[in-house]
Amino acid sequence: MARKSQLLESRFTEFEGSAVSPLEVPPVASASHRLTSLSLFWRTFFLLALLLLGSIAAWLQTLRALEFEPRAVQTAQQLASQVNLSRAALVYADSIGRVALLKTMNTEEGLRIIPREANDQYVPFSGDTLSKEVTQELIKRLGKSTVIASRVNQQPGLWIGFDIAGDPYWLLTDLARFGPTTGKTWIIWLAVAGALSLCGAALIARLINRPLKKLSFAASRMREGDFGASRLDETVQTAEIRDVNIGFNRMAQSLAKVEHDRALMLAGISHDLRTPLARLRLETELSVSDLTARAHMAADIAQLDAIIDKFLDYARPDRVELARVSLISVVDSCVYSLRNQPDVNISVKVDRNLMVMADEVELGRIISNLLENARRYGKSSDSGIANIDIAAVASNNWVLVKIRDHGIGVAPDQLANLSKPFFRGETARTAANGAGLGLAIVEKTLQRMGGGFSLAISSMGGLSANFKLQQAPKV
């Protein structure tokens, strides 16, 4: 509660003298905060996606490893077969047939055989692991004198050096036959598998998140006092979720009964006290002759009657109907009765075009309670006058309202308890006796209207009551 109060207080600028100080707009959440506050759906989705993509990558590497050795052996076998067949054809062909054979091999198969000279410059073939494995397999099949090069006399290609009857030759073949296992096929399959995995992760995350989302919505409705709308499905197939829903529904029913009994008890007690108080007031007026004693007794009875009114306000269980309400109109009506009070000085800085979604009567009670609280406990120790500032500003579809006094304030350790029912702070702020329900009624009423409430210690002295309501849409 204290942290919430400090946050809301930070959204307001201080009033300095008679200058008009507008309220600050709440800062936008930082990017790092947005990233660390992902919903459960996105957290689950990202974790599942990471797991699935990692599994796909692992399977891809496994498949490539399983294919690696067979592909190396098969490629080396094909190249060795080309060399052996070329050697055999050239050995057993006559001179005229050898020329035709070389021409046919070059045009039909893309194989070129040329003599290997002693001054030929070549670059040894070096590539990935697959290329090295194929090179070793070729040397094993063709002999240790076999040379494999990627460039001979500045001409690129796959060059295989071998001997024919003791004479060295070069065989130039297609480099694509010796390439690594790359291509569009792996990319396509990887993209398809990744897309299907992400869709599956999204579906699983949605199925996991759906009951939790319903539970979160029901809990929020129950927090607002709407126990009827917080009922969850007790017939779902998942046993754990069904047990949670049943337990939550039973808890909501118990809380609804407790709330109803509490409201009924407070209303009954308050109603039953009205009759003896009325008789006591009448008997006091008729039987007490001392005017001073009669005035004190009448004041005590009036105070008890006011306390009973507070009980009835706090026990009110009904929901409010929200409508477009002019904030300045409600503020003016609440301030009107205090304008002629000698111990109150009120400054109002509210835009006349501000419209809020609220119940006009309830909003009037809220502002009247806060003004009365500031009048009682926010008086200056020097002049005995309560200087009260009222200001409001629209921000991000909300209207932020601030009512601040210039009294002595409260101790920081008591700030979080001021809005609790029946709590009484230090004597300086509780000199006037009351029910201890004023701020609790304000907070509860604002919650019923979908707003928020907090208290803060002003840096310039006094207590600041801050609340917000939804801004009414423009018509």
TrEMBL record:
Transmembrane regions: 40-60, 186-208
GO molecular function term, any single one: ATP binding
Annotated ranges, domain Histidine kinase: 268-473
Alphabetically ordered keywords of this record: ATP-binding, Cell inner membrane, Cell membrane, Kinase, Membrane, Nucleotide-binding, Phosphoprotein, Transferase, Transmembrane, Transmembrane helix, Two-component regulatory system
Main location: membrane
Top-rank lineage group of the source organism: Bacteria
Name of this chain's protein: histidine kinase
Species whose genome carries this gene: Rhodoferax aquaticus
High-level lineage: Bacteria, Pseudomonadati, Pseudomonadota, Betaproteobacteria, Burkholderiales
